[in-house]
Amino acid sequence: MSSQQQKQPILKKITKGLTVGSVITGSTFFHGPPVLALGLTKLFKKSKKVDETNINITNSWLSVNNWLIDHVLPETQWDITVDENLDLNMQGRYLMTCNHQSWVDTTVNQYFGLTRMPLTRFFTKWELIFIPFVGQAFKILGFPMMKRHTKEQIAKNPELKTRDMEEARKACEQLLSQPFTLLNYLEGTRFTPEKHAQQQSPFTNLLKPKAGGLALALSILGDKIDALVDMTIVYPDGAPGYGEFWLGEVPRIAVNMRKIEIPEWVLGGNYEDDAEYRERFQNWVDDLWTEKDQLISTIKQKYNH
C-alpha cells in the first residue's frame, strides 16, 4: 500500500470530522439564541405560541443533525422496525422506555423520532440549570427538572419526600399542554460489562431496571397518554462512542419500537408507600425487561449469522 493510500482514510476522517463539527456548531449558534431569547419572554407571560415556536426551532436544529446522518454518514446502515400495533404521530402523548449503552442513544432517538413523534424530553437534575445555555434550554423546552434529595436528607426532613413528589407531579403536568414524548432510561446508567458484572444482572444484555421513575410517570400521566412505547437500540458491532458515530465509524444500528400494554392495575397504585404494589410493579417491569433482553439477543443473532 502506498503512503498516499495510507493517508487517504486519515484525510477522509479529518475532513468528515471538520465538516460535521462545523455544521453542528454553526447550526447550534444559529438556532440556540432564538430559543433562549423567546424563553426569556416566559418570565413575564406564558405563551403556547412561544412554546410551539421554540419546539419548531429545536426540531429544525435536529433536522440539520439528521441531514448530516443521511448525507455525510452514509456508511451507517439503519435497520428500523416498528410494531404494527404502534400508531405514532406528531400530536401524540407518549411515555418511552429505552436501553442505554452510549451517548449515541439520544441521537438515535432523535433520528427516529423527528418525523414520527413529538420532541423527546427526559427527566433532568435541577442542578443542570446552572450549566450555561444547556440548562436554560432544557428548562425553556419543558424538560422536567427535579430537585432530588438523598435518603439521608429525607430521613432528617421527611417533608422533602413529599416536596420531591409534588415537584415531579408539576413537572409532568406541565407537559400536558402540548404533544410530548417523555423518555426514561430504566437502567439509570449506561450499560458496561463492568456494571453488568457488579450488579450480577440476571439479564444477558441489560442492567437491572429501576422501576420508580416509570411508576411515578405512569401515576401522573398514565390515563392521559396515547401509548407506552419501548425503544430497543442494538449496535451489532459494539456500542460506539459519540465521536465514532459522527466520524461514520458505526457500520450498523438496529432500532425496534414496540407498544407496551399497560395493565389496569398499574394505574392508580402508590409505588412509594404500598409495598405490595411496589413489588408487583417491579415484577411487571422485570418481565418487560426479560422480553427486551430476548429481543436484543435475537437481533444480535440476526447479524452474527
UniProtKB/TrEMBL annotation:
Every Phospholipid/glycerol acyltransferase domain range: 94-236
InterPro entries, per database record? Plipid/glycerol_acylTrfase
Q: Cross-referenced SMART domains, in alphabetical order?
A: PlsC (SM00563)
Annotated GO MF terms: acyltransferase activity
Checking SUPFAM superfamilies in the record gives: Glycerol-3-phosphate (1)-acyltransferase
Q: Which domain of life is it from?
A: Bacteria
* CDD domains, sorted: LPLAT_LCLAT1-like
- Protein's recorded name: Phospholipid/glycerol acyltransferase domain-containing protein
Upper lineage: Bacteria, Pseudomonadati, Pseudomonadota, Gammaproteobacteria, Moraxellales
